[in-house]
Every structure is written in C-alpha cells, then in structure tokens.
Amino acid sequence: MISIAIDGPAGAGKSTIAKRLAARFGCIYVDTGALYRTVAYGAVKSGILPEDTDGVLRLIGKTEIDIAYRDGEQIVLLNGENVSEFIRTPEISEYASRVSAVPQVRAFLLGLQRKLAAEHDVVMDGRDIATVVLPSATVKIFLTASAEKRARRRYDELVAKGMDVKFEDVLGDLLERDHRDSTREIAPLKPAEDSITVDTTDLVLEEAIDAAAEVIENVLKSGDKN
Ligand code: DC
Q: In a designed cystine with 121, which of 27, 100, 156, 170 is the match (CB 3.0 to 4.6 A)?
C-alpha cells in the first residue's frame, strides 16, 4: 500500500493539490479536516461549545462519522446524513480548530483514518498525518506558504462562493487558527522529522502540483532501489 501524507497550515492548497496528486498516483483522496469539521458541525447543531469537553464527549459517544465518494468527490456522513455542504463556513472552520484540540475527538477519528490507509492507497491531508496518524507513510510532504498568500487564496475562494468577507478578517482568523493548531498539546501542526517541505508561496497551482509530484516520484524511485 502507498500512503502519501500531506500536512500543513490552513490555506496552503493542501486539498486542491492532494486531490490532483491522488488522481495522478492512483490513490483515493482523504480530507481529514472534513472529519473534524463534521464533529464541529454536529456540536454546533446540538448547541455544544468546543470547550465543553463533557458535552463533546457525550456527542461523540452517540455519533457515527464516515466518508464516502460520490462522483469521485469525498463526502462526509454524520450519522448517515451527507453534511458536506454545511461544513465549509468560517464559523465551522473556527469550531473545528477548537474541537480538534480535545484529545478524545482526535482518538475518535484516528481509527477511521488508519483504516482507510490500511485498505487503500491514499493521499491523506491534514495537520498530523505524518506525525501521528501514519508515521510510516511512504511519502511525507509538509505543504506551506506565507500567511499573506494563504489568506489571499482563502479570501478569493470565499468571495467566489458569494460570501461577504473582509481580507483582514480572513487573515486574522487564519493566524489565530495557525496559532491554535500549532500550539495545542496534542498532535500539533508541525512537520515530521522526515517530512519534505514544499513552499507554494511563489508557485501557481500547476507548479505546486508538479513540485509535490516530483517529491513523491523521487521517494517512490528511491524505495524501488532499496
Ligand atoms: O484542513 P481544514 O481547514 O479543513 O481543517 C479544519 C480544522 O481541523 C483545522 O483548523 C485543524 C483541524 N485538523 C486537525 O486538527 N487535524 C487534522 N488532521 C486535520 C484538521
């Protein structure tokens, strides 16, 4: 089995790039952020605050989360219901970042992520894939870009979806989320010791995909020799 781990901060282009790499290398694409977003969505719907650990624990005790593929796209299922269209708002982004710091939430989602990688060739993106979820991943990429550039891309995406947002707010939210994701005690966002960093600040999408694909090809080739 091949597993390609792609970690990095919000807005580095992980999902777009990971999706394209999955198609190129014949893998399924697993967006693990969507799983944390689904927990967050369930909590918001039940009126539970992310800091209410008991409430969150009760919620995950009676929650089933799974992923499926529809027309080649990953969808997320919350107790069997497709909630994919509800999890991409700024509110859920923030909630997901907060709820993902709860150790039991991470433990709850770990099994599903490992099962997917055991059963399929995967390109999996997230924050802790190379460090925690798949420490023996075949290829480990840390995908990053300057905060300004990441915020600009996220802003353009939200505007394209018709959302009324300010650039300064998008940048502020992103910096806060980076800080929270990288300073939490459990599974913080950081490169694994053997990750290869790809910085996409000055790369257009196709260049970023090629840069990451080159890393993957080199690692796979060196594996063939060993
Ligand atoms: O990648 P994303 O923006 O969809 O992720 C949403 C939040 O989920 C992110 O702020 C942190 C959390 N997350 C995580 O803690 N670990 C992962 N493997 C993926 C996401």
A: 27
User: Which of the listed residues 39, 86, 181 should we mutate to test ligand 1's pocket, taking the one with most ligand atoms within 8 A of CB?
Assistant: 181
Which residue has 């409430």 as its token pair? Answer: 55
Whole-model pTM: value is 0.93
Amino acid, res. 57: L
> CB–CB of 6/124 below 8 Å?
yes
Enumerate residues lining ligand 1, CB below 6 A: 10, 32-33, 36-37, 93, 96-97, 100, 126-129, 177, 181
